[in-house]
Amino acid sequence: MTNAIQTQLTSLRLRIASSALSLLAACGGVDRSASGLAEGEAPNESATNPSIPGGSVSSSDPWNIQYTAPAGFALKGEQGTLSILTSDQQGGFLVVQRSVFRSSQEALTAVQGFLTASGLSAFAATPENKTIAGLSAVTFASDGYTRDGQTLRVRYIGLLSSFGTGLSILAAGYPQDFARFEQAAQALAETVRIGQPTINQQVVAALAGTWIYWAGRSSPGTSVTAGSSSSYEERISFDGASKFRFARESSVSVSVPQAGGAGGASADSLQGDYTVIGSDLVLLSSQGPYVVRMQLSQGAIVVDGKTYARQ
């Protein structure tokens, strides 16, 4: 495997995690009017409730999303809901991610964050709506490049179910190798089956309350040296049923001997719906869907490497 492709695979595992707010912002707007089956979609699911926070089915995977890896491809690594598949043949890779989107437009607004998390940039392309494996799908192919400037081709396929869950498939490869990986992505998409997810109602209820992450530092000054301090706080509240509210604040101040001090502060917030699928926290807001692996234990939750203490 070439160094550039290997670097991308390593970067995928290292850079998937990011702050909740920045990923939410990267996902763009949400079309909340879209629910149920899209026109022309033949359901392959085993239940009819179109909402995410309802019911459950028996499955070893709480997301209840199954697919078969293409011939010659094997799992390289996993990070939360994201899986990396590689082939013995060099020149590209596949990325598969379980996600939440309820319309083709929502899948497209989420794809930019998906590409960014994959360490790729892609030029604008015209999407195509179709049906794959009985599911509504949106797909496009585009020229792209890696962070170090390597030129790649990418194919994105977003599969949507009537449950609000879906699967993103990304094929990336050098131009001379791309056809093989594009065909593999299509073959994988044709094996996808999506059923109703298993909602972890116990954890949904256990999250009730307010959780706080704080980081800060202080460097006292002297009569001849400047001093500074900074603080950063994230606060997320859950109602124990379906609603969340998120806010963050940051401030910094500097004092200079015989010159006074200066500082600044910023704050932003958002709110929306939440649920928990297995151990994955799902946040749905006006800025898009966000899914992250979560740990809940001993009065704290750990998300993206940050520990939030119960207030």
Q: What key phrases describe this protein's structure?
A:
Protein Transport Mog1p, Chain A; alpha+beta; 311 residues; 18 strands; eight-stranded antiparallel β-barrel; 17% helix; globular
CATH superfamily of the largest domain: Mog1/PsbP, alpha/beta/alpha sandwich
CATH class of the largest domain: Alpha Beta
The number of domains is: 2
Radius of gyration over all CA atoms, rounded: 22 Å
The tally of helices reads: 5
Please outline the major beta sheet: 8 strands, antiparallel
Residue share in β-strands: over 45%
Total strands: 18
Q: H/E order of the elements?
A: HHEEEEHEEEEEHEHEEEEEEEE
CATH fold group of the largest domain: Protein Transport Mog1p, Chain A
Overall mean pLDDT: 76
The gross shape turns out to be globular
Give the low-confidence spans: 1-59
Helix content: 10-25%
Structural class: alpha+beta
